[in-house]
Structures are given as structure tokens and as C-alpha cells.
Design brief:
It contains 17 helices and no strands. By secondary structure, it is an all-alpha fold. It has a domain at 226-332.
Length: 338
């Protein structure tokens, strides 16, 4: 069996298992009930974005400061279907997994085997079988589309605009998307790629962050409700957060070790993907440190969110992992008999 065929089977397995889980567990658990589904129902019923703040103005459980793109997608799909029904909306889940896998393949250098492997890595990540209805599935699609533009910045005239657009969409999905956009912009500027870096940074701030921030502030009449507070920070809380993050990484340590081994065997990929790896590492460090500012119990906060942060990182690194595997195995492995 060729490498491409094996990777294709893995991709099919990931997408099939995601579809089966979606059929058995329609949208309706955890954060979907408390945040995303609640807001989507409110938008669908009222036709107003202001409803996402009115359902929880104190920000006690639904994060009204979160950007509204995923609830708007759900509400729009419900309008197209004629009613808001979680069972009817659930097919969006395997569709998002498929689109993210395709985006990962598009972002991957090399032949069909490497591209299919990148898609398979994304589709097999546990997130898709654990958190149906959560917003990271949409967020990771935009992040992978943005990763795919990085190689095209010097060869395609519209690539900087597409990169900025995907990062804005990521910022409209979750705050982690805005952070990713700012990290990308900073790395581009530090590499003296001024035009795409400035365009990405300005668009993320002026289009992706400020409009929604000002809108929510106008509705609340004061500071945005948030899970984080500068006044909550202490060195002890930061230390506790980092310990909880290290413990909460759990199964992912094996993946990190495997990725590091692949990079050690693939110097070309390590060199070409150094900026992507650095960007993901900086984002992870910033998000880990942010727990030191959490208004909640640090251990609880890490327990219920860090694995989804790791999902974003793993998916964004899937193209690099697939390229490293292809380089380590060598071109002859592509046509090796089974």
C-alpha cells in the first residue's frame, strides 16, 4: 500500500468516526448549551446581535464578550432549514472537519501522501469526537486557511489580502483567533515582510477586534465581562496555572515528542517551518500565561479549556508534521509496495 493510500484511509476513518459521533451525540452538551447554542437561539429568535449580550449581561456563564461568528453561522443555518433544531444542525460538524482537513492538505507542501496525511492528522484529533458544537472547529478552519497563505505571500498577489481576511474571520470566531492574528502579524513584521504583516495586524485589530468590542461595550455600559481580570493575577496563580497546564497536557506529550522526533529527522522541514512552529509556541505560551489572570479556580479553568487550546496548536502544526514525516521517510517510500 502506498503512503497516499494509507493516509487516505486514515483520513476516511477520521471523517467517518466524526460523522458517527455527530449522529449519536447531536449538538447539546457543555459549552454548546451554555454559550454557542444559547446565543444562536437568541439571534435566531430575535434577529438581533444584541441578544447575545442580553441573555447573560453579567457574563456569568455565556461569555458575551466572545465574538459572534459561530452563533451567527448556526442561526443562519437554522433560518435556511426553517427552524432551530440541534439535530438538523449537527451535520455541520463533520462538514467542518472535512473542510479543516482540506485546508490542512492545501497548506501542506509535497505530494498527495503528505497532503492526505495532514488532513488525516486533523480529522483524527480527539476534539471532533469530544466537543460537538463548540466553536474551535470553525476557528481552526480559518487558522489552517491562513497557514495555507503563508507560502503564497511572495508568489500570489492576493495572498496577503486572503491571509488578512482569514485572520479576521478567526478573530470573529474566538479571542484565540485574534491572538493568532497578532502573532502572525508580529512574526511577519519581524521578518521584514512589512506589507502582509501590517495588513494582517491592522485588519485583525480594526476589523476583527475593535468593532465587536465597542459594540458589546455600548450594550453593557461598562467594561466587557470576561473570564480574565488583571486584578486576579498573582505569581502564585501563574505558577499554579503552569503546573495545571503541564499536567493537563496529558496525552499530548506523546504527540509533542513524536513531532520533535520527526523534526529531528527532517532538517528541511524544520528550517522551512520554523516560523510556523515559533508562532504556535508563542501562542501556546501566551494562552498558558493567561490562566494566571483567570477569575475562576485555575485548575478548573485549565481542566475545561486547555485541551481545546492544544487542539488548535496540533491542527495548525499538522502540515509541518506531515511534511516532516514525508521527508524522514524519503521519496522512495511513496511507491513502496505493501
Amino acid at each position: 500500500m502506498t503512503r497516499a493510500a494509507a493516509a487516505g484511509l486514515l483520513l476516511a476513518l477520521g471523517l467517518l468516526s466524526t460523522s458517527l459521533v455527530a449522529l449519536r451525540r447531536p449538538f447539546g452538551t457543555g459549552d454548546f448549551v451554555a454559550i454557542w447554542g444559547l446565543k444562536a437561539r437568541a439571534i435566531h429568535a430575535s434577529g438581533s446581535l444584541a441578544s447575545v449580550v442580553r441573555v447573560d449581561p453579567a457574563g456569568e456563564f455565556s461569555h458575551p464578550e466572545y465574538p459572534p461568528l459561530w452563533p451567527c453561522v448556526l442561526a443562519g443555518a437554522a433560518v435556511a432549514l426553517g427552524r432551530f433544531d440541534e439535530l438538523l444542525l449537527t451535520p455541520l460538524w463533520p462538514a467542518l472537519a472535512l473542510l479543516a482537513s482540506l485546508a490542512a492538505a492545501r497548506a501542506t507542501r509535497g505530494g498527495p501522501g503528505a497532503k492526505l496525511l495532514a488532513g488525516a492528522i486533523v480529522s483524527l484529533l480527539p476534539y471532533y469526537r469530544t466537543y460537538p458544537g463548540y466553536a474551535e472547529a470553525l476557528l481552526v478552519l480559518f487558522l489552517l486557511l491562513a497557514v495555507g497563505e503563508l507560502d503564497r505571500l511572495q508568489t500570489e498577489r492576493l495572498a496577503p489580502a486572503r491571509l488578512a481576511a482569514f485572520l479576521v474571520l478567526a478573530a470573529w470566531t474566538k479571542p484565540e483567533g485574534a491572538l493568532a492574528g497578532l502573532v502572525v502579524a508580529a512574526l511577519l513584521l519581524s521578518a521584514r515582510r512589512l506589507r502582509p504583516g501590517a495588513l494582517a495586524g491592522l485588519c485583525v485589530v480594526l476589523v476583527g477586534v475593535l468593532p465587536w468590542t465597542l459594540y458589546v461595550r455600548s450594550l453593557t455600559g461598562g467594561p466587557l465581562p470576561s473570564a480574565f481580570d488583571a486584578g486576579a493575577f498573582t505569581p502564585a496563580r501563574l505558577g499554579a496555572a503552569l503546573v495545571a497546564v503541564a499536567a493537563g497536557t496529558g496525552w499530548a506529550w506523546a504527540g509533542i515528542a513524536t513531532f520533535a522526533l520527526l523534526l529531528a529527522l527532517a532538517p528541511g522541514t524544520r528550517r522551512l517551518r520554523s516560523a510556523l512552529i515559533l508562532g504556535v509556541a508563542l501562542s501556546l505560551a501566551a494562552l498558558a500565561a493567561a490562566y494566571g489572570f483567570s477569575r475562576f479556580d485555575v485548575g478548573w479553568h485549565v481542566r475545561w479549556s486547555w485541551d481545546r487550546v492544544l487542539f488548535l496548536a496540533a491542527a495548525c502544526l499538522a502540515p509541518a508534521a506531515a511534511e516532516a514525516a514525508a521527508e524522514a521517510l524519503g521519496p522512495a517510500a511513496e511507491e513502496a509496495p505493501s
